[in-house]
Design goal:
Shape: globular
Order of helices and strands: HHHHHHHHHHHHHHHHHHHHHHHH
Number of helices: 24
Largest sheet: none
Low-confidence stretches: 1-34, 334-340, 389-410
Mean pLDDT: 75
Strand content: under 5%
């Protein structure tokens, strides 16, 4: 009983997230990094799932006009096709934690890969919008599971001093998959593009035959012998794993003592403020319009008079470059710089939406036609690059990587990882996950309708959301660096 009270009230060591505990064993763990070959191989295999995520997200843009022409789809029907990916991902993300805990991280990746293969084959063999939507839904479910389990797996197998760098590979391969989808989609039919989406799934399925299971999952599941063997395989046959093994075992014991909470507990006084901050950040992130822009990039560029394939390839390649450049700096970022860049990013997104909206306004009123495509490209690029920057920065936040990596990895997850106590994180994260994917669906579904209503009005609307986000971040989002979870909670409830 005393131990349980200690967990609930005052043991800050227990309350620290599993994947970022910094204790006396850290130096010993870092000395056990003699062999990273298996870690690197396992990470490469896992991020094939991230590449698949990018391929699925990038498919709808280059395939739009080919599918609409072949099946005679209206913009409203294609909006359903584009947005139903988020519906599937929402369900996949909600169920991903249970699947990964029940059959393991590798088992979850296998299931997700097979679901994605089934989705791609359904899309490839489609004969109408019903089969198209069914395949797209399956793809969404698959990437919803992958978006959670891939970064979790990477974080759980990686040595602590390498975790930030290797976690960046998750976002790098997402934007690379997006880039490849745009490049390949510019020169092949949409059915051929669908077949290329199967390739990363096949590599993932084959690669999982040669990679170890997460030692932390094995310890939780009670596989003591396998836990030690897989940890030794990851750290090298001559590495001393005693300290890391003891830390993992200690966490397993203390985690079981944490109190269970229900959905109604989120409305308690001590939890309502974190809920407002977490869900609020997610709403602003999603309703800034990013998913609509990604899903229908070709349409946007064509409407602005820019060659659509060229514009899409240009911005997706910039996202890859930004992520690569950020990898060298990622382990130097603390919370405060992260928060400051988040605010700057929101301001940049505001500017980008205003520029894009202005370009469509000028086009609608036949003013300065030569300036329209320039403003459109100038506006769209910072929107997509800054979102890529936000995703890039998250790679170093192991709390999010370990517990709540369910989607594309935006900054709100970093804040959520620190404003919720550990025993509330799971259910609080589920709520935020739901808000994330619901927002993604709403934006991707309504984008075409809004563009048909008023192109410039659409982007001016997104600009107003970005402006509100700047105010919200400054007024509501707390500084968390150098503070214990108890101090953060006290400041938010005070």
């Amino acid at each position: 009983m005393a131990a349980k009270q200690e967990v609930e009230k005052g043991n800050s060591k227990i309350k620290e997230p599993f994947l970022v505990q910094q204790n006396q064993g850290q130096s010993q763990i870092q000395s056990n990094n003699g062999s990273l070959k298996m870690v690197l191989l396992s990470t490469f295999v896992a991020v094939c799932g991230s590449f698949e995520f990018g391929s699925c997200a990038g498919f709808s843009s280059p395939a739009q006009y080919g599918i609409m022409d072949e099946f005679g789809l209206s913009y409203s029907q294609y909006s359903v096709f584009g947005s139903i990916l988020s519906i599937g991902a929402m369900i996949g993300a909600i169920s991903s934690g249970w699947i990964a805990d029940y059959i393991g991280r590798k088992g979850a990746m296998r299931i997700a890969s097979m679901v994605c293969i089934a989705g791609w084959m359904t899309v490839y063999l489609s004969f109408g919008f019903v089969s198209l939507d069914s395949g797209r839904f399956l793809l969404g479910y698959g990437i919803g599971v992958l978006s959670y389990v891939v970064p979790v797996y990477i974080a759980e197998i990686t040595p602590q001093n390498q975790r930030g760098t290797l976690a960046t590979a998750n976002q790098l391969f997402i934007v690379t998959g997006l880039f490849v989808a745009f490049v390949v989609g510019a020169s092949v039919t949409w059915r051929t593009l669908a077949l290329t989406g199967i390739l990363p799934c096949m590599v993932l399925l084959v690669g999982l035959l040669f990679t170890p299971e997460s030692p932390r999952w094995l310890a939780r599941a009670g596989y003591e012998r396998e836990f030690k063997a897989e940890l030794q395989k990851l750290r090298g046959v001559e590495a001393d794993i005693s300290e890391e093994e003891a830390e993992i075992q200690e966490y397993i014991v203390t985690h079981k003592l944490l109190p269970k909470v229900g959905i109604m507990d989120l409305l308690d006084k001590q939890n309502i403020s974190p809920i407002i901050v977490g869900v609020g950040l997610m709403v602003f992130q999603q309703f800034g319009g990013y998913n609509g822009i990604v899903f229908y990039a070709n349409q946007i560029f064509e409407s602005a008079g820019v060659p659509p394939n060229l514009g899409s390839i240009l911005y997706s390649s910039l996202q890859v470059i930004v992520t690569l450049l950020g990898a060298s700096l990622i382990d130097r970022l603390g919370r405060r710089p992260l928060l400051m860049v988040n605010t700057v990013s929101a301001c940049g997104l505001l500017l980008g939406c205003l520029l894009t909206g202005t370009s469509f306004f000028l086009k609608a009123h036949q003013l300065m036609p030569d300036l329209v495509p320039i403003l459109a490209v100038t506006g769209i690029m910072p929107i997509l690059v800054l979102y890529g920057l936000s995703h890039m920065q998250i790679g170093n936040q192991e709390v999010h990587i370990g517990f709540y990596s369910v989607g594309l990895g935006p900054i709100p997850w970093v804040i959520m990882s620190e404003i919720f106590p550990l025993h509330v994180k799971a259910i609080g994260g589920s709520l935020v996950t739901l808000a994330n994917w619901f927002g993604a669906w709403a934006v991707s579904y309504t984008f075409n309708f809004l563009m048909n209503w008023s192109s410039h009005g659409t982007f001016f609307g997104y600009a107003s959301v970005c402006a509100a986000a700047v105010v919200f971040i400054i007024m509501e989002v707390p500084e968390t660096k150098g503070r214990t979870l108890e101090e953060i909670q006290a400041s938010m409830n005070g």
